[in-house]
Amino acid sequence: MFCCLVKELLLIRLKERMRLLLIARDAGHGGTDPGAVANGLLEKDLTLQLALKTGTYLRTHYTCEVVYTRNKDVAVELSERARIANMVKADLFCSFHINSFNNVSKGFESYRFPGSSKALELQRNVHTEIMNILKKHKIVDRGMKEKNLAVVRKTVMPALLTEILFISNPEEARLLRSEGFLDQVAQAHAIGIAKTARLIQKINTEDKKHYL
Ligand SMILES: [Zn+2]
Fold it and tell me: Is the pTM of this model over 0.90?
């Protein structure tokens, strides 16, 4: 607990000193709470993979810092997730979930807090980037929605929750099992977030050579 607090305080200092944009990544469920379970998959594993992949992509390609509400298989209360993001003064918040209902339910949907206009730009940018990828896999767009969900209500920064396909649908579960597919979806999250936060793209070392 103490070491977490020190890390959070260091991040705030870093943010103030370097004017870094902090992006909070929230992997839904974890530990004793597996979330939805179907077709040999656990929601908590997929959300963690997606959150970590998105964070890595953001850190590698843009000038920003990323904070995770969990970076391993542990249970974290909903209010604690929001507290972490608020505490480090994150600029944007994104929570990852996988839907579940029956074996024919399908598609992708995203949620913001009802009436939150500041979250609308984030939702629109991330939703559009993700659907650009999902269309290629013939995934249905269930739309940009509003809902009074704890993590989007309790976070003070623009917040979004994505429900990425249905774990209960065998066809969609097949896609969720693919590492390459998760990479594409994570990258789409990162690009939508970067657009919203107007993150500055890093020039990679190969490109740099041409400038020198
Ligand atoms: Zn969930």
Answer: no
